[in-house]
Structures are given as C-alpha cells and as structure tokens.
Amino acid sequence: MKLTNKDVLEYLKKAAELLNENREYLTELDSAIGDADHGINMDRGFQTVLKNLPTLEGKDIGAILKAVGMYLVSTVGGASGPLYGTAFIQAGTALAGKFEIDEQDILKAMQAALDGIIMRGKAERGDKTMIDTIAPAIESLKKSLSNGTDFVEALEEATRAAEEGMKSTIPMLAKKGRASYLGERSIGHQDPGATSSYLLIKLMLELIKEKQINN
C-alpha cells in the first residue's frame, strides 16, 4: 500500500482532532504522576500543527514531518514537546524527499522516531514512558513484515502490541521524568505519554484501513 503526502496531512488533521477529544483523559492520567498538563500540552501543540497544515500542502512527507516536529518543540510544554518534536523530526529525516511511502518506509520512520526519543530522553523499555508503547509496536511490525504478512494485518498486530505496552506501564515504577520523583507512588498508574503514543498508532491503523476500503 502506498501513502501520499496528502494522506500524511489527513493523518495529522485527525491526530489534532483525536488529541483534542482526549485532552481531559490524558491530563487526568498525568495528574496522578505528573504535572497534570500532558493532555493540555499535546492539544496545544497539535492545534498549532492543525493551524499550519495549509502551509505544508504540496511539500514532501519528510518536510511535513520535520515542520510538525518544530511546531511541537516550540509549543508543547514539559518533556512531551522535545520528545514528540524529536520523534517527528527524525521520522521526517528518514523520509526526506518522498511524496509517497510504503510499509517499509513507515517502519523506517517509526524506528527513526523511536531512536530520536531514546536519544533525547535517555530512557529505555521498562522505565514507564512512551517507549514502552512504541518499541513493542515496531518489533511486532518488523516481524510481521519480514514474514510477508499483509500490511493492514501487520498494523493490527502492532497496534495490539502497542496497547499491551501501554497497559504494561501501570505496574511499573517510573524511572524517568516527573513521575520518577514519586518513587513507589508511581506504581499503579498508566503513563500518559505511553497512552498518547498508543492513540496515535491506533489512529494510523484506522486511517490506513479506511484507505484500503475506499480503494
């Protein structure tokens, strides 16, 4: 399956809508172990992205994603801005000059995004962060594609892995970020960054399934 720069712009539009809808939910999660602003910050960042989407029409996918990363770095507060911003910038770098991408390009971009998050946040799996959602999704997608699994089916499996990863943060002791200051009290709460990452992965699956049906 091929995705165009227009598909990417549509994804970003839907992402802004999704994060706006989940603003209170994400903030509620963050109120337990953070600064109670993750939903507010993500919504603010993606509303800025939404407002600037018209200026990105006609640009290649790499340029679009890099621009999104810059908007997020400059408008999203807390740790989320630098982490999500870096993720989009690195994904954009991986897809530089491309107006159309396939499943291997998506995998490459996701891996680049994860590498950027790890580099910026100095975290690893098990630290109760967004990495616990994204890394299992990439592992699953990589395995499925190498086995020749249909892309939509592979993405479905990756999304399930992302959901399991997100839920796995509940019993974890936080080792990074604001949540780490709580020590044992961070146990029993789902990580908000892991949750927003899951929502964005699930959205990608939904839009790609919709595109497949319409084609």
Could you characterize the architecture of this molecule?
Helices cover 71% and strands 2% of the residues. It is an all-alpha fold and 215 residues long. It has a single domain, classed as DhaL domain (Serine Threonine Protein Phosphatase 5, Tetratricopeptide repeat). The longest helix has 23 residues, at 192-214. The mean pLDDT is 93.
Name of the CATH class: Mainly Alpha
Query: From N to C, what is the helix and strand string?
Result: EHHHHHEHHHH
Helix count from the secondary structure assignment: 9
- Write the CATH architecture name: Alpha Horseshoe
Write the layout of secondary structure elements.
Elements: E1 3-4, H1 5-21, H2 23-33, H3 38-56, H4 61-75, H5 80-94, E2 100-101, H6 103-121, H7 131-146, H8 151-168, H9 192-214
Antiparallel strand pairs: 1-2
Helix pairs in contact: 1-3, 1-9, 2-3, 2-9, 3-4, 4-5, 5-6, 6-7, 7-8, 7-9, 8-9
Question: Which terms would index this structure?
Answer:
single chain; 215 residues; mainly alpha; Serine Threonine Protein Phosphatase 5, Tetratricopeptide repeat; two-stranded antiparallel ribbon; 9 helices; 2 strands; 71% helix; globular
In short:
The protein is mostly helical and 215 residues long.
